[in-house]
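Narrative summary of target 7.
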Amino acid sequence: MAISVVAAWAGWSAPHPVEIDPDTGTNRIIAVESLISAQNLRRLLTEMPETFTHFPPLGYVLTVMLGAGVAERSGLFATAMRASMAKVSAFWLTPAVALVSMMGNHAADAAFVVMIPLAGIIYHAAGRHPLVGIAASFAAVSGGFSANLLPGQLDALLLGITEASVNTVFEGWTANIAGNWYFIAAMTIIYLPVIWYVTDRMIEPRLSGYALDGSAMEAEKDAGEQTATSPEERRGLKHAGLVVLALVALWAMLVLMPDAPLVDPDAPPEGRLTPFYRSLLPFFLLVFLLPGWAYGRAAGTIRSQADLVEMMAGAMKDMGYYMVLAFAAAHFVAMFAWSNMGLVLAVDGADALRASGLPSWAMLLGVLIFGATLNLLIGSASAKWAVLGPVMVPMLMLLGLSPEMTTAAYRVGDSGTNIITPLMPYFPLVLVFCQRWTKEFGLGSLTATMMPYALGIMVTGMMLTAGWVILDLPLGPGAQVFMDVPAAVTIGE
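Modeled conformation, tokenized:
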């Protein structure tokens, strides 16, 4: 608000990128407005409920979490992670731990609380140092935070903020939760060998000198108890898998059947699947909710409808922190738009980048590096994107880069430095997991252990981002790297 007052007093302005003034025939000049003007203060105070509830990420994330909360509380996520690790051979142990850890991000906190300590136990049971397993899992869960084979709640959150950012300048753009699907799947594939190599070739020799505290026999007993699955849990996993297959078949039928409801026959060829893309949000709600319910019924963790409702209500209670963040982010983005600062910054920034002559991939690497650096100070991916998105997304749209591509580049940078900043919320928890096995393992030891992972993930992530742009690969269903710059429209038409 203070900056808007100074900018308005200084007369900071820029030509609107798409609106033509009918009186002059040139782009309409947009000036920064003070947020403490009577009009903007009135708008802030009278429209506060609408500003909050109309924030796109809010509905996206809460919808997905209704299902993910059931899958987590019924035990489906934890059991699936444990079962997938139960019979892995020694050779494939590291890539298996890395893959399951990255996929475990769908379980939110459970990936940190369940998978990381479990990896230490599994490595110890396999005759390897448990700290090696903890490091590999931490690198995958947090360093590969955006990497996954399927979209989930993080996609809903970040792309929702992207939608709000676009609409501060170009109204009418809607987010597709699968807009980064192919990209995050590629992240998973390229991060696996990096984590595998760093773990087995660099970290394991370094950590082998740390002596273990406690009884090895007790650790072996814990390993057997925590990795074994009961007959009821195995039956639950089977039922959950069948439900997932049924949901995939149902969505395929809704696209392929005659007069398919998820196909728009009247749209241009490139837009006929738009209803399908928009339906992916409820699809991921159901793909978590119904398999979670099927698992819980078979495993005995859901005995009645009341249990199911209680799990969904519990998921909403856990979103309290997010709701507070969303309230602040919604008003930040809205006030940024009311002041016109985002639009002016985007136009001036786009002009500067255009004059620099930098190729598109270099611009996106700048977004990536800036996000990675800021991540050392602000751990929350959504908090940073709520600040950066309203400027970066419209700015790069004016240079022909899609909102999905800018979001993808940001996600690479945000993930890479998660594992080397003590400000990351779960960093102290991972340190506690390490000290269970080795009391002398301190904060500096954990940071030094994770540094090779961070460097490897950042370098390969930068190569992936640049290569994706150069090859102009699709980012997800209906999402491309480049886009047409929005056409100019005369005001009033």
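Confidence is low (pLDDT under 50) at residues 215-225.
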